[in-house]
Specification:
By secondary structure, the chain is α/β, with parallel strands linked by helices. It has one domain: Alpha-Beta Barrel (TIM Barrel), CATH 3.20.20.70. Helix content is about 45%, strand content about 15%. It has helices at about 20-35, 50-60, 85-90, 100-105, 110-125, 135-140, 145-155, 160-165, 185-205, 205-210, 220-230, 245-260; strands spanning about 10-15, 40-45, 65-70, 95-100, 125-130, 170, 215, 235-240.
């Protein structure tokens, strides 16, 4: 039986609606300088749309990747205020976050909408970071897995196993831990990540499920990154507020490097 190669750690910084152009430029340069060209962890910066070009220019020739926080499912058209996957690809984006809980909660990103966005990203050659997660009430009602399984089924419906394994990164982000300072424990994160990988095994087969990277997102910071990333099925982090501080974000990447070395 062929051994499955270890999954490459992946750390993505979601800046959300933060950062003027001078701030984005300064933060990007500080992160690049601090990481000193490391190539053992996939590091993705996801600034606001207005800063994508600026950050992308700074990242050219570096081992870091440019990512977007969202996208529309159409390539062009009468969709005022939206950005298409073609436009993102044109300015150098390699990744795009899809289905973030804030998009689901505040902007009408239902499961069918997320499915369409995921398909569009794959068709245009973008690597989607698909977010799933439960609210506090859903967790307290014992429905964590029911919610996550439903989100996975809806998003990945009809997509070939090979495309999922090669191109899709998953991110478990418990809604109750996003921006609250209350993160899941390493045990809680591993429990859900392990369940996701077990579900993927049934959906696309064991070897391909083992190849998929599953990030944790929800109040990740330098103080808890080591505990979270030390779990066997936690392959990286989708970092929110802590990604706006270069020193803290670099520390999280260093925690991912330690996992790879171990």
């Amino acid at each position: 039986m062929t051994a499955v190669p270890p999954r490459r750690p992946i750390i993505a910084g979601n800046w959300k609606m933060n950062g003027t152009l001078p701030e984005a430029r300064k933060l990007t340069q500080e992160i690049l300088q601090g990481l000193r060209g490391q190539t053992d962890v996939d590091v993705i910066l996801c600034p606001p749309f207005t800063a994508l070009s600026t950050v992308g220019e700074i990242l050219k020739g570096s081992p870091l990747f440019l990512g977007a926080q969202d996208m529309h499912w159409e390539s062009s058209g009468a969709f005022t205020g939206e950005i298409s996957p073609v436009m993102l690809k044109e300015i150098g984006c390699r990744f795009c976050i899809i289905g973030h809980s804030e998009r689901r909660a505040h902007f009408g990103d239902t499961d069918p909408v997320i499915h369409r966005k995921l398909l569009a990203a794959l068709e245009q050659g973008l690597n989607p970071i698909l977010c799933v997660g439960e609210t506090l009430q859903q967790r307290e009602n014992g429905k964590t897995w029911e919610i996550i399984e439903g989100q996975l089924k809806a998003a990945l419906e009809g997509i070939e196993s090979d495309r999922i394994a090669r191109l899709v990164t998953l991110a478990y982000e418990p809604v109750w831990a996003i921006g609250t300072g209350q993160n899941a424990t390493g045990t809680q994160a591993q429990e859900v990540h392990g369940s996701i990988r077990a579900w993927l095994t049934g959906r696309i087969g064991k070897s391909q499920a083992q190849a998929i990277r599953i990030q944790y997102g929800g109040s990740v910071k330098s103080e808890n990154a080591g505990e979270l990333l030390g779990r066997p099925d936690v392959d990286g982090a989708l970092v929110g507020g802590a990604s706006l501080n270069a020193k803290g974000f670099i520390s999280i990447v260093e925690s991912a490097l330690q996992k790879k070395e171990n």
